[in-house]
């Protein structure tokens, strides 16, 4: 099954990125650069969904990306995971 969620990518002063998923509280990752951050976001999303499913918890729906405010030093982008 494919899951697609909006993620917030916040650029840090050292060139790294912090990634959060508004619909998945606690699902946070970081990347050394933008390319790595996109990869790490996908990995974090996959692991989070697998964890929820293993605990028989409901996987929440995704928020409309247009309802999420991007940080001044970052952006919002979709991340997908095929489980």
Salient structural properties:
83 residues; alpha+beta; Double Stranded RNA Binding Domain; four-stranded antiparallel β-sheet; 1 helix; 25% helix; 33% strand
Give a brief description.
This protein is an alpha+beta fold. It has one helix at 34-54, and strands at 2-11, 17-20, 28-31, 74-82.
Describe this structure in words.
The chain has one helix and four strands. It has one domain (2-82): Double Stranded RNA Binding Domain. It has one helix spanning 34-54; strands spanning 2-11, 17-20, 28-31, 74-82. It is an alpha+beta fold and 83 residues long. Strands 3-2-1-4 form a four-stranded antiparallel β-sheet, with helices on one face. A hairpin with a 5-residue loop joins β1 and β2. The model has no long low-confidence stretch (mean pLDDT 97).
Whole-number tally of structural domains: 1
Question: How many DSSP helices?
Answer: 1
CATH topology: Double Stranded RNA Binding Domain
Largest sheet: 4 strands, antiparallel
Helix share, percent? 25-40%
| H and E order | EEEHE
CATH C-level class? Alpha Beta
The amount of beta strand, in percent, is: 25-35%
Q: Taking Cα atoms only, what radius of gyration do you get, to the nearest Å?
A: 12 Å
**Uncertain segments of ≥5 residues (pLDDT<50)?**
none
Structure classification: alpha+beta
Write the CATH architecture name.
2-Layer Sandwich
Provide mean pLDDT, rounded: 97
Question: Which descriptor suits the 3D outline?
Answer: globular
Please give the alpha-carbon distance between the first and last residues. Answer: 5 Å
């Amino acid at each position: 099954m494919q899951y697609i969620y909006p993620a917030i990518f916040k650029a840090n002063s050292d060139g790294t990125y912090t990634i959060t998923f508004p619909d998945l509280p606690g699902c946070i990752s970081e990347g050394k650069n933008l390319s790595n951050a996109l990869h790490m976001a996908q990995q974090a999303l996959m692991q989070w969904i697998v964890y929820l499913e293993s605990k028989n918890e409901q996987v929440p729906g995704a928020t409309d990306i247009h309802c999420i405010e991007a940080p001044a030093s970052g952006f919002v982008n979709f991340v997908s995971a095929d489980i």
